[in-house]
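Reviewers of the previous submission asked for a worked example of the structure-prediction workflow described in the proposal, so we include one complete record here. The input consisted solely of the amino acid sequence. No template or homolog information was supplied to the procedure at any stage.
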Amino acid sequence: MTAPTLPPEIVELMGGVAESMLADIDELVAAMDAAAIELTPTVGADAALVAEMSASNRANVVRLMTVFARRDARPSPIDVPPEALDVARTVARRGIDLDVIFQSYRRGQNIAWQSYMAHATRVVPPGPQLVRLLEISSQRMFEYVDHVIGRVIAAAQREREEVLGGALARRTETVRLILDGAPIDSRRAGERLGYELARRHTALILWAPPPGEIQGALEAAAGMLARAAGARLPLTLSAGSSTLWAWLGTDSEPAVEALRGALERAQPNIRVAVGPTIRGIAGFRRSHEAAQAVHNLLAGHPGGERLALYRDLEVTALAAQSPVRAAEFVASTLGPLAEDTPSAARLRETLRVYLDEAENGPRTAARLHTHRNTVLQRVARATELLGHPPGERRLAIELALELAHQIGPRVLASG
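From that input alone, the workflow returned the following structure tokens.
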């Protein structure tokens, strides 16, 4: 049965509301993300899964609102965004209950619909036309969500069927048991993995923003890092469409400069979180937990080093466990220096390097590739904005500057 053609005046109004919503897309997606994380807190602890979920939410809203904005009176075919299929496959690979997909979509739908109604009341005054607009829009939105839910759950079920069979299933199950701290024999687990668990382990998490299908490039980068570390082959496990977990089994701690040099030969958008090198099956788990803490810290911020070591970021990761508390700490410690503006960023970076170089102006200037006088002027201005010499609260200021440097907008105040 063919869907009826919509009245032209309603089509025009739907287009106007859709354009208004697309202009506020960031705020809407943030609300949808928060609702999904509240539903399943374990999702919020995994930066890779959060990134894919957020990309899916954004893609779905953009897809539907773009259809509305075209102002086509004829019904359009419903296309499922690839980002929605990506996160469905990741949920299946992780062994998460597929009902999470259904519940997340319904929560996201409710939030999107509330936003749509709010935007509609700004475009159309109360009356019969607004009622008609909301009736038709809700029908189209529910049809879209129902269709997408069916497609993504089917994709997740197919992925789960593939994962449950063969070597990948055995590897996934064994790694999961180790990471969950289950009582498992080290020798037998090593045989199932084809990986020697008695050695020292350096866990890696490789990812590439924005989310996308680049597993081949991530696998290649893991191989380069393994060779640089003197490891035979990395043990790898896909953790999403743009995230890879890996472990390097070695007799000693890999040389950081060798790893950094290997990463320079990999695809340029690939970043790596590196856990500490620890022996045995417990070390396998603890190194991964540390690498994941670094990944969670950096995944939402595109700046910073491509190779990030837990030993360098352990304190920062601990301080950033509560984003709200971290933002409050940065604001109260840095004052006006905590603004998310280019001028404040220059002052923060200069002061951060200056303190790191034991307040040595020439060394700071060399690191920043600028003149010594410029460094001293910026430090003076930063001190003025702080309201006291940095040495009075050196530890707190250094930590606040490091948080701002590593995770940027998540702890900074809007300029």
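Residues 322-411 form one domain. We consider this example representative of the routine output the project will generate in years two and three.
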